[in-house]
Amino acid sequence: MTTTPTPPPPPAADAVLEALAEVLEVRRHADADDSYVAALHHKGLNRILEKVGEEATETLLAAKDAGYENDAAKRQALVAETADLWFHSLVMLSHLGLDHRPVMDELARRFGVSGHAEKAARTGA
Ligand SMILES: N=c1c2ncn([C@@H]3O[C@H](COP(=O)(O)OP(=O)(O)OP(=O)(O)O)[C@@H](O)[C@H]3O)c2ncn1[C@@H]1O[C@H](COP(=O)(O)O)[C@@H](O)[C@H]1O
To answer: What is the E.C. number (predicted)?
Structure first.
């Protein structure tokens, strides 16, 4: 009798990006038949960018649909679409030899810097 292996428990929320980065790195070199991520890498950069574009469009449509209503199903749909967008963005970074870490570093560098102040420093406005 064959038994289905139990999937590993998901990592704690703050460790998800680190754990996912490790999985994505391994999957870059996996067999396309065994892995959705590997299949994307095999299809190449243009297909990955198409997916990012599709997921961005689906995210903004879900946001429009959710609007300011407090509809739990619509809000959950928006969360799911945003997760798809973030996931495919991470695959894009991985395909180009990057990961979430420099993005997090960039957000950290910007933390506490007002967008208005940053723009004024950049444009002299
Ligand atoms: N987080 C995700 C994740 N989020 C979304 N997806 C997949 O992204 C795809 C989204 O595509 P669409 O909704 O556009 O639907 P689709 O028609 O199936 O996709 P296409 O045929 O158009 O490419 C679905 O197949 C989802 O399953 C993900 N696939 C994988 N992961 C993570 O990546 C890991 C490695 O995955 P594999 O490479 O498949 O082992 C997994 O363990 C997860 O942790």
So the answer is: 3.6.1.31
Here the ipTM equals 0.92
Beta-carbon count within 10 A of 85 CB: 21
Question: What size, in residues, is the chain?
Answer: 125
CB of 84 shorter than 6 A to ligand 1? yes
State which ligand 1 atom lies nearest to the alpha carbon of 30.
38
Task: Please name the residue ranges forming H helices in the chain.
Answer: 16-27, 36-43, 45-66, 72-95, 100-110, 115-123
39-44, long-range: CB < 8 A, 24+ apart: 40/91, 40/95, 41/91, 41/94, 41/95
Tens digits of per-residue pLDDT, 54-97? 999 999 999 999 999 999 999 999 999 999 999 999 999 999 99
In this prediction the pTM is 0.89
